[in-house]
Fold these 4 entries.
Entry 1:
Amino acid sequence: MRVLLAGATGAIGVPLLSALAGAGHEVVAVIRDPAKRRLVTDGGAVAVIADVLDRDALLRAVDGVSADVVMHQATALRNASRRLTPDDPTIALRGRGTANLLDAARVVGAHRFVTQSLITGYGYRDNGERLLTEEDEFGVHVGTVADLVTDSSVATERQVFAAEGIEGIALRYGMFYGKNAFSDMFADMMRKRAPVLPRGRTGTTSFVHVADAAAAAVAAMERGRPGEAYNIVDDEPMSWRDFLMTVARTHGTPRPVVTPRWLLRLAVPYLGCLLIDTTTRVSHAKATRELGWAPVHRSVPEGLKAR
Ligand SMILES: NC(=O)c1ccc[n+]([C@@H]2O[C@H](COP(=O)([O-])OP(=O)(O)OC[C@H]3O[C@@H](n4cnc5c(N)ncnc54)[C@H](OP(=O)(O)O)[C@@H]3O)[C@@H](O)[C@H]2O)c1
């Protein structure tokens, strides 16, 4: 298939480019920084330059391109600000960005659209011991600023499911680790002795290696059922405390600096603190059953050992 991919230069985008090329698909990557052109052309893709949030520029950039599928993997969490506001770029990318990419899908003649959603949509709260499935309520509000993030995941899903003439599929990813993802990000922070771990208990969440997430995106594009969301996670949910300890061990960094919660709130972006107290264990049974996908790296220690 021919794929128009937004987010090709990111933590999931780079392994996704290789996975798509490996499966024989052709990629046209929408990138906003011309200096990154080589990153995608070396991966076998053609680059078009546009900011996904600039609808007119995006539609101009894809004029003359043809594609069967659009994949939305663009987020802007890397330089997240301390406070979360409705005009946060990641929130805008899931709302307005999805709408713009759906318009681009019509221009390029695509009939399928795979979008990036997140398991945090099950609610930034303690979701208990049970493995959640796609049957569980998605878009759960908890009365904090994190609801903006939840709403943005719902917004991208709803738009792609409702788009006329388009087969929309949403991937509810667990927390990414692997190259350039959370494990590398926290390893950097621990090397700098920045506070990362609150005193007391942390939440437990489902993770996924970025290479497995990329493989799932290819499987969803090829075999996903229109109008369906799939949880894309590994087999062993892990507490953030254990995650950070594992990252410190495998990356050879100092152990995480433990700090009172109020201090952590000053040190890390808005969502870090909310995320670290959230417990969301999720099942990938539906993805395995319908997409024929299962994580190669079944747990974080296994995935980080293989890095
Ligand atoms: N499920 C998860 O756990 C999850 C989900 C998302 C992100 N994350 C984590 O958060 C961290 C940052 O990830 P990230 O995905 O935000 O950054 P990232 O790895 O840099 O990837 C974001 C991608 O979106 C592109 N992009 C951003 N804004 C764009 C725009 N307006 N128009 C076109 N393209 C745009 C970026 O392009 P540029 O190269 O030009 O910046 C990049 O290709 C990583 O540690 C990642 O693992 C985790």
Entry 2:
Amino acid sequence: MNALGELMARRISHSGPLTVAQFMAEALNHPRHGYYANRDPLGVAGDFITAPEISQVFGELIGLWCAVSWQAMGSPDLIYLVELGPGRGTLMADALRAARAAPGFREAISLHLVETNEALKSQQKHAVDDAALPRTATWHDNLSGIPDGPVLLVANEFLDVLPIRQFQKTPAGWSERMVGLGDNGHDLRFVLGPPQDRPALLDENLISAPMGSVVEVCPAALSLAAALGERLVRGGGAALFIDYGYSLSQTGATLQAVRAHRYQDVLDGPGEADLTAHVDFGAFLRAGNEAGARGFGPLGQGEFLTRLGLQSRAQNLKTNASRELAVEIDAGIARLTDPDQMGTLFKAVALQAPDLPNSPGFD
Ligand SMILES: C[S@@+](CC[C@H](N)C(=O)[O-])C[C@H]1O[C@@H](n2cnc3c(N)ncnc32)[C@H](O)[C@@H]1O
């Protein structure tokens, strides 16, 4: 077992099993051993690859979504442009380049990036320095440090890293799936907590799920949607989230561990693999709606990008490209949009202040 596994086993033997959310939070964010503490996990040489790293068109179209949303808000002189979990800063760099198409937009931007990983923060600094925005960018550990006012927020593959809780239906009630210790008192393994009537935050429709079903809830995503919804109502603006997940709350465990582009056992080597769960977009939008924001989507990533003008942007890029580059551009577009690749599993949702017209790409 690795150092973080040993720390967790000691904690469990003193204080009892961890919830899956506690396990996930430690494995991802432990200040010394956490997966996201200080490494760059992205790219071919890393553990996984994300849409902005596949094609520049992805970030460019999101930049256009931001510019059109800003215009729909009446082109305010100051807009807080926020990205949650910006990775290498690639999406934002591409978005800011495309944003030049909207006169006055770049001058209005005050850029705020929410990131906990020091290694990625320095890559993000380089990426956004190249964009030469008139105002200096600021980094935050969470959303609460961003000043009040109109906001445009984007986040790609951020919600899936937020810690989830899992509950299993048993004849005695709903039992929380937890991480405890095996018979040898040392190895980590899944155990069930005491049964309860109905877990907090469980979707109404899942109460009658068949015996043995596992359901997941993500309290951090729901709090984020509620806080963001309130903020959008108060200060105006719009938020766009793209991630993999499902449209309606459903049963089934989706927690997964990925290392070097392969799935591995979730409890194996905590802190060494990326841990994610599919996003419950239905629950996320409901939490934003309850706070007063208007919700849009979920819409498959392929359809969303196509509606924002993916094909004509790709065509433009290919006009001056070599044959090899044109093939590469097409392969990237196919990967982002094909239903059997990222086109439908990945989805877009938006939350907006209630007074804005329909969100670009969703009507
Ligand atoms: C899966 S990566 C996605 C990166 C980027 N958005 C992309 O599409 O390439 C998740 C990002 O969220 C950041 N992150 C993870 N946990 C976080 C947290 N609790 N608060 C802020 N950022 C976090 C990671 O460091 C990383 O930048």
Entry 3:
Amino acid sequence: MSMQKNVESFIGCDSQYDEAGIVLFGAPFDSTTSYRPGSRFGPSAVRHESFGIETYSPYQDADLTDSCCKVFDEGDLELPFGDPLPVVNSIMDNVRTIVSDNKIPFMVGGEHLVTLGAVNALYEKYPDMHVVQFDAHADLRDDYLGTKLSHACVMRRCHDFLGDMRIHQFCIRSGEREEFLFAKSHTHMHKFTTEGIEDLGKALAVSNAPVYLTIDLDCLDSSVLPGTGTPEAGGISFMALYEAVIGLIGSGARIVGVDVNELSPMLDTSGASTALTCKLIREILIALSINR
Ligand SMILES: [Mn+2]
């Protein structure tokens, strides 16, 4: 019997890098958060609290420990605080490596700006990529208080290189009027709910386009997930998000990368927001493995 070092991984994600189809990693950065910081603690909280949920999904009748589920937990990136540019570049480097090894990157934020690094790295390999965003906020500002690298601008920065009509936004219910005007001619914006996700999944599956999935947890109603930096009332339920996301993955759309961001665990001392996030991550990891 050989002993192993006691290093914590997300529950059921104990595969080695070489055999893994999915690489989970944390991006603990929250320096551009406009309201309440704390999402830097998201990845470590999720990893630790994941031992409070089961590896088995009764929804999908599958288990994170099934042979089709091979997930390597890389741990958290070591990111500097304050300056977002080296953070985005560091995430880009990491995702570039994962993608060049034909694995799916699964990033746990951190604030939503971390998405920019992952999307940019994947775009290098997949210039025809689409991004599906679940979020309360449009995140389409060209700048926020003079800075272009802010979580309030992340989808606008992605649009800079993705181009028009590549970003599909769901559950959006907050932003400046200019962002909603911008969306009319540059993105596909679905306000308030996930309505339209089924048709989108079918279209993306038919076209076989690469798809990046970014889930800002504040798309959920703030009664469902209060542990987030910029809570916004009027959001969706956990099951609505579950059905939209797992439905999209199951539609045959070619998912090439995923992130779940903006969990700020200390803002919900009940722990329920973190537990919800763990469950969502489990379900997505299983769905990606089944549909790979
Ligand atoms: Mn966002």
Entry 4:
Amino acid sequence: MTDVWSERAEAFRTSATHREGPDLDLVVEWCEPGEGVQALDVATGGGHVARRLREAGCEVVSVDPAPGMRPTVVAPAEHLPFADRSFDVVACRIAAHHFDDVRAALAEMARVSRERVVVQDNVFLGERVEEAEKLRDPTHVRCYSEDEWREVFAEAGLVVEAERRFERAVEVEPWLARVETPAQDAARVRELLADRITDGRVALRSIVLKGRKR
Ligand SMILES: C[S@@+](CC[C@H](N)C(=O)[O-])C[C@H]1O[C@@H](n2cnc3c(N)ncnc32)[C@H](O)[C@@H]1O
């Protein structure tokens, strides 16, 4: 898996939907950035959350299991190599659906945070969408419903202080090209998602949750 992500690194660094957007703005705002705030960006990918937090004055460490993403530290979310309460805030954007164990990952994020954990991820929209997502990208594990996300936060000892939904109209062809879905699988993905595609864009949804340690 790690090598696959390293090969994709440049595509995720330049991807328009990852680089900017109101969802990224909200993740950054809910991190409560500022001079001297210590932040961890988990599954940093193209480094967009880390970059924005640095621009806002934070001291940022980024972590990702794929060396090609050029994180500060190479590690999976399920095993964060940091002491308890090392950061004021831990952020994780559009990545948890790739984690083998989302509960272990959230427990780790809560453990290494002194106060806040901010997570954005795509929301579960049914088994057809899951099938399409896995076909598009075999590293997809699973998206979770809004209720499941609340449970995962609660189990990690985090009180959900705010949450917001984003309806995302994602351009289908760049979305397939970014992870190099083979043509035959891409055709099946378009078929599975046909009722969600309008004008070349697929309607997906994400949620941003802001948690505070109990
Ligand atoms: C879509 S990218 C992340 C996007 C990025 N956070 C952003 O805001 O642009 C998904 C990332 O998850 C990472 N990843 C996959 N499995 C992981 C795991 N178990 N723990 C942490 N990161 C993982 C991949 O290496 C990849 O960099």
